[in-house]
């Protein structure tokens, strides 16, 4: 495989930082009680979303999960519109009607975050079906977690994708826990990617905290997927630093375990990689980081200054 | 004009729709090679090929989800669920996804799917293959529901359903497929959603009936005509969005109403309709609103029991006469 261009390395860093800073900002807002409802933060998992999505072409599409801010930002969603949506403002992606778990931007190929565990998997499969029918040459990247892989709809969907050779990558983000149920108790197999053989397709398990590794792994398989040689199941092993949602007392894991994973921070790891390999200088890294901070600050300003929807809007958009 | 069976009218509608727009495809279990569980789609796979008449494994939830995903990408799926009872397997995708995507995404997407599915009892198919569960879908905001009772209505409503950018569920009735024939124009025509049809004009009492019950109501109406009772029979055709105005206008004229459906008494669609009529036509009612519905039981197997549970013409006639004493 060819060398990764410098601009891709910069974009990897930029996007991982955007996600981290966005989520940390959102975390602050929740702690101050400024957000209605709860949120599911992607902190610690940035390399999976960024590495995989940067390996796509611009016209490829994704489906996301309830923990979807990372996917959306990686795919190019506007942090201003996302932040406004989280604050329930009219200027949000969904005019305040969807909230954190239902952010979507069909125009840039985000077919929606989803509040139902596994809810996007069949939809992603349908998108791939349409892509094959219409011969558009796109690929679908379907995100879901170690919880969703036990939903019946996962098995129904991947089975159909396998019999029809649909252009879809099923990417399971194994962050070790569903809500609080450890994956080791939820399945009888060592690696989730082994389920691929039940469907006669290829399955791989990769280090989801290695953004370059994720990027390369997707790049290596995507050409075959795009030419409808069959779907592939990719398991990204990663970890979420924060609880399942804001109300999570985290009784299912120890503080020590969390600290261990924090030491393996995908962003610090990538920064070190960039500097050790003299790809990007420290000052350039800091510049990218500052730009990301500005973007998130602007997003917060925008969201805070935006108006709430008119109550009458509650009855609009039920039907097209 | 030539006559077609209800099933033939639906097939003709699908064929004409697929001929006119190559974004339209039919997907479901045994819709292709088998020709459809009720023989409805026989021959379609020969005309359109397996890429547009798509046979699937038995996976209702994903079948509907695939339709949703394809619709988001610009295709127009016709999703056939073999028996309406099996819709329950796909409720997550229908109720949490298809129905809500437009709203949750702030109006920035739509899900133009049509789900066709035969419901109803009277065939000895028993409890899990005979239900009328439209009320469960009626309750979910974001869905539209049609229940055509004649071949003419079925074809015209189908075209409107395909044109509608919202998810539309078309509840067909198994007994209508090869039992009811009617005039059907060969050309395309649309019957708008959300418009009720006065199937029979009368002055003494209004019956509102859905699906197969429309025919039972009409049979009863013809019989009572000989006794000097003129029954007005209204077929909502679309139960959501409901044309309540046509129904209220009729009640204002006749002052008495009987609501007939095959769904179970508790919480069937006519329970909503009864409350609508009570609140919107209270001053015009000369008697309580009467509902005739299936007993609150699963549909039993033995024909004696099945006939007891599902509303009979006899029960409808008694309900009408009970109001006129």
Characterise this structure.
The complex is a heterodimer of chains A (320) and B (325). Chain A is an alpha/beta fold and 320 residues long. Chain A has helices spanning 6-31, 46-54, 69-75, 79-86, 121-134, 152-164, 183-186, 211-226, 255-263, 266-276, 282-305; strands spanning 61-63, 140-145, 168-174, 202-207, 232-237. Chain A has a single domain, classed as Thiamin diphosphate (ThDP)-binding fold, Pyr/PP domains (Rossmann fold, 3-Layer(aba) Sandwich). Chain A has eleven helices and five strands; from the N terminus they run H-H-E-H-H-H-E-H-E-H-E-H-E-H-H-H. In chain A, helix 6 (152-164) links the parallel strand 2 and strand 3. Chain A is globular, with a radius of gyration of 19 Å. The model of chain A has no long low-confidence stretch (mean pLDDT 97). With 325 residues, chain B is of the alpha/beta class. Chain B has two domains: 3-183, Thiamin diphosphate (ThDP)-binding fold, Pyr/PP domains (Rossmann fold); 197-324, Rossmann fold. Chain B contains twelve helices and 14 strands. In chain B, the strands form three sheets. Chain B has a seven-stranded mixed beta sheet with strand order 3-2-4-5-7-6-12, with helices on both faces. The N and C termini of chain B lie far apart (42 Å). The chains are: A alpha/beta (320), B alpha/beta (325). Chains A and B meet through helix 5 and helix 6 of A and helix 3 and helix 4 of B.
């Amino acid at each position: 495989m060819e060398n990764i261009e410098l601009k891709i390395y910069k974009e990897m860093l930029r996007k991982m930082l955007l996600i981290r800073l966005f989520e940390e900002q959102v975390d602050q807002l929740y702690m101050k009680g400024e957000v209605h409802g709860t949120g599911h933060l992607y902190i610690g998992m940035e390399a999976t979303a960024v590495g995989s999505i940067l390996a796509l072409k611009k016209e490829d599409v994704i489906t996301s999960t309830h923990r979807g801010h990372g996917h959306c930002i990686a795919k190019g969603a506007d942090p201003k519109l996302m932040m406004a949506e989280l604050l329930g403002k009219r200027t949000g992606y969904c005019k305040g009607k969807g909230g954190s778990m239902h952010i979507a931007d069909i125009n840039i190929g985000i077919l929606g975050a989803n509040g139902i565990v596994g809810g996007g998997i069949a939809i992603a499969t349908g998108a791939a079906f349409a892509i094959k029918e219409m011969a558009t040459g796109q690929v679908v990247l379907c995100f879901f977690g170690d919880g969703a892989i036990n939903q019946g709809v996962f098995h129904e969907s991947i089975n159909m994708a396998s019999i029809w050779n649909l252009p879809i990558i099923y990417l399971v983000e194994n962050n070790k826990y569903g809500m609080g149920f450890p994956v080791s108790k939820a399945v009888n197999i060592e690696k989730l990617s082994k389920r691929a053989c039940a469907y006669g397709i290829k399955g791989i398990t990769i280090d989801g905290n290695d953004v370059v590794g994720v990027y390369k792994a997707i790049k290596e398989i995507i050409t075959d997927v795009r030419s409808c040689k069959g779907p592939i199941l990719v398991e990204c092993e990663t970890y979420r630093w924060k609880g399942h949602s804001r109300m999570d007392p985290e009784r299912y894991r120890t503080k020590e375990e969390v600290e261990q994973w924090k030491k393996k921070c995908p962003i610090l790891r990538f920064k070190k990689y960039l500097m050790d390999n003299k790809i990007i200088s420290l000052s350039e890294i800091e510049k990218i980081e500052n730009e990301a901070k500005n973007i998130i600050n602007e997003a917060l300003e925008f969201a805070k200054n935006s108006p709430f929807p008119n109550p009458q809007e509650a009855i609009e958009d039920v039907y097209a | 004009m030539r006559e077609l069976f209800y099933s033939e009218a639906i097939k003709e509608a699908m064929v004409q729709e697929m001929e006119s727009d190559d974004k339209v495809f039919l997907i479901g279990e045994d819709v292709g090679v088998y020709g459809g569980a009720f023989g409805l789609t026989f021959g379609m796979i020969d005309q359109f090929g397996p890429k547009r008449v798509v046979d699937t494994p038995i996976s209702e939830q994903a079948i509907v989800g695939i339709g949703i995903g394809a619709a988001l990408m610009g295709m127009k799926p016709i999703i056939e669920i073999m028996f309406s009872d099996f819709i329950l397997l796909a409720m997550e995708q229908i109720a949490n996804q298809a129905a809500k995507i437009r709203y949750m995404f702030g109006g920035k997407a739509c899900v133009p799917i049509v789900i066709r599915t035969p419901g109803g009892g009277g065939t000895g198919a028993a409890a899990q293959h005979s239900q009328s569960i439209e009320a469960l879908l009626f309750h979910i905001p974001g869905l539209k529901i049609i229940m055509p009772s004649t071949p003419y209505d079925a074809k015209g409503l189908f075209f409107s359903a395909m044109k509608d950018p919202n998810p539309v569920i078309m509840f067909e009735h198994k007994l209508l497929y090869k039992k009811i024939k009617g005039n059907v124009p060969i050309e395309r025509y649309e019957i708008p959603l959300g418009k009720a049809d006065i199937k029979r004009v009368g002055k003494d009492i209004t019956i509102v009936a859905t699906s197969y019950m429309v025919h039972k109501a009409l049979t009863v109406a013809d019989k009572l005509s000989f006794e000097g009772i003129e029954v007005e029979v209204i077929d909502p055709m679309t139960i959501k969005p409901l044309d309540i105005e046509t129904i209220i206008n009729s009640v204002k004229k006749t002052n008495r109403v009987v609501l007939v459906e095959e769904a179970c008494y508790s919480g069937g669609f006519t329970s909503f309709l009864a409350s609508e009529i009570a609140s919107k036509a209270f001053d015009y009612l000369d008697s309580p609103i009467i509902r005739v519905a299936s007993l609150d039981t699963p549909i039993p197997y033995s024909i004696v029991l099945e006939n007891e549970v599902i509303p009979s013409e006899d029960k409808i006639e008694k309900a009408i006469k009970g109001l006129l004493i």
